[in-house]
Structures are given as C-alpha cells and as structure tokens.
Amino acid sequence: MDSSELKRAGLKATLPRLKILEFLENSDVRHMSAEDVYKALLESGEDVGLATVYRVLTQFEAAGLVVRHHFEGGQSVFELEQGKHHDHILCVKCGKVDEFMDETIEERQKKIAKEKGYAMTDHSLYIYGVCGECQKEE
Amino acid sequence: MDSSELKRAGLKATLPRLKILEFLENSDVRHMSAEDVYKALLESGEDVGLATVYRVLTQFEAAGLVVRHHFEGGQSVFELEQGKHHDHILCVKCGKVDEFMDETIEERQKKIAKEKGYAMTDHSLYIYGVCGECQKEE
DNA sequence: AATAAGAATGCGAACTCTTCTCATTTACGT
DNA sequence: ACGTAAATGAGAAGAGTTCGCATTCTTATT
Questions:
Q1: Residue A99: beta bridge partners?
Q2: pLDDT of residue B1
Q3: Which strand (E) or helix (H) includes residue B76?
C-alpha cells in the first residue's frame, strides 16, 4: 500500500483514506462527487461512511492532493491534483467534462485583478455547451 | 406600479412579483440571494413567503429579467439583467462583488469551445481575491 | 509485541438551501 | 362583478453536506 503520499501530506495512513486515494488514482473518470466515491467504495466491498468520504475529501483538498469544483448542479466535484492548473468545459447534455488551459486567459485575469485592485487568490472558469457527440443526436 | 415589465415577460402582474422586481430595481446592492430578498421584503412589511421568492426569481431568470450566479458558498445569487454581459471578481474577505468584461477572454472562450467541438451555450468566470480595502486591514 | 493516548471512523441526527404539496387567495378576461 | 385558472403562503420534504459522539483504529512508546 502506498501510505507515503498520505504521510507526506501530514495525514495518518488510515484505511478509509488509503482506499479513497487509491480509488481516485485508479479511476478513469477524473471528476467525481463525494457520493460517487462513496458508492464506488461500497460496491468494491469497502465499509466506509459517507461522512468519512466528505471529511477525507475535504482534508485532501486542504492538503493539496485534490481540487474541489463547483460545477452547476449543486454538489461539489473532486479531481485529483495533477500539478498543472487547468479549466473546464462541460457538456450540458451528457455531463462530459473536458479540460483546457489558455495562457492568454490566465494573463488577462491577472491583469483584470490588478486593475481592480484585487490580490487574486483563485479563479474558476467553466464553459458550458453541447459536446460533439450530443450535437449529432438531433 | 410598473406592471408592464412583467406583462412583457409573459408573467401575471401579481403583488409578490411586483414587489420583488421593484426591490431588485431599487436596491443599491446588485447581487442578492433569495434569502436576502425575502428578508428585505419582510422588513419592508411585505408579507411574502420564501418559497414564492424562490419561485419568482426562477421565473424571472427564465424570462431573462434576472441572471443567476453560483458564487462559492452554496447559495444562488441573483442579479438584475443589465443587457450587457459581464463576469465577476469577488473579495473573499468582505464579499464585495465587482464586475468586468474582457473581450479577449470572451473571444478565447469561443475559440476553445470550437476547438473542443462544443456548441457553447454559456460560461461562468469568477475571479477570487482580496480587495483593496481588505488588503489594508493588517 | 503489547499498550496507552489521541485521532479517525461510522452512524444517525442536524443543518442549509431549495423545491414541492396543497388548501386558500388573487388576477384578469368576460 | 364573476368564474376560472394561476399564484401564493406555510410547512413538509428533498438534496447535499456537516456535526456529535461512542467506538475503533494508528502510531509512538515500552
């Protein structure tokens, strides 16, 4: 088991944390709600509580292992940190999520923050649309 | 009373709708949650239900009278439609909200959507930071 | 390897924001 | 003014998330 990542993040290597991290790393879906993680673990025969999943994901976020997003639709969505910042474009029909990174937009944002007198801490950019697949279906 | 705006939007000119619209138009705060609107009306002596405020704001949104935002923090925030699209920059300390519009960013977003094969329907961009005022306070 | 002490867990209750249900009231064309 | 359909208010219900607490783990120390 790879408890070193957790140790490094200053977190005790408990079974639920290990399982959740492992799941995030091995899943091919990159953006998941707490509920998604919870259900997947239950189906794998793990015995975790939903509250624990929420707690752990929040800790992972604080530790920088995970990034939390607020897509439309209310619930939080989590994504394993990949080192490189990026924004998201999502399909309003099928829910597909794509990622992109645009240096020009990044620059402009910094510029705007400065102009407005803000010390920028963060930003979130979501583009919504209908993906190629969904456009075909009438 | 100005019921014409409501009529034009295809909505019956009921008292709660009139009051809510009037309040949105006369308030100097431009971004308000349903709860904010509800409380303000109660304090003005109006007798509205919170459910009605939610319903009406949702109808206003559908009618294009109002725009709904999902700032961080969970609840929806509403803003009177001003014709011209803009994005937001908000202070994470005091909650202040500023608006901006950047043609370059707009263009880039369209370009990205096209590249990724999406038919763009909408987008949301929020910059978070500490505003000038709040930077001064220690 | 056993132990002690504190941290983490699971469960259900609680909380927040929002929507729904439904009996009652209101707006508006006639 | 009246009738009808739509809108309202109140509280219940729903979704997502957090909290409280008794129990169970981790881990540093023997």
A1: A88
A2: 56
A3: none
Letter string b/e over residues B74-106, b meaning 16 or more CB atoms within 10 A of that residue's CB: eebbbbeeeeeeebbbbbbeeebbbbbebeebe
Tell me the mean pLDDT per 10 residues along chain B, length 138: 87 97 96 97 96 98 96 92 95 94 98 97 95 91
Q: Which nucleotides of D are covered by protein (CB under 7 A)?
A: 6-12, 15-20, 25-27
A1 beta partners:
none
Q: Which domains, from first to last, does chain A contain? A: 4-80 (1.10.10.10), 87-136 (3.30.1490.190)
Rounded to a whole number of angstroms, the distance from the CA of B95 to the nearest CA of chain A is: 12
Give the phi and the psi of residue B121 in degrees, each rounded to 5. -110, -30
Q: Based on C-alpha coordinates, what's the Rg of chain B?
A: 17
Q: Note the pLDDT tens digit of each residue in A42-57.
A: 999 999 999 999 999 9
Distance of alpha carbon B88 from alpha carbon B65, whole angstroms: 18
B75 touching A, CB under 8 A? no
The alpha-helical segments, DSSP class H, found in B1-118 are 4-8, 15-26, 34-43, 50-63, 103-115
A129:B120 CB<8 A: yes
Q: How do beta strands A66-69 and A32-33 pair? A: unpaired
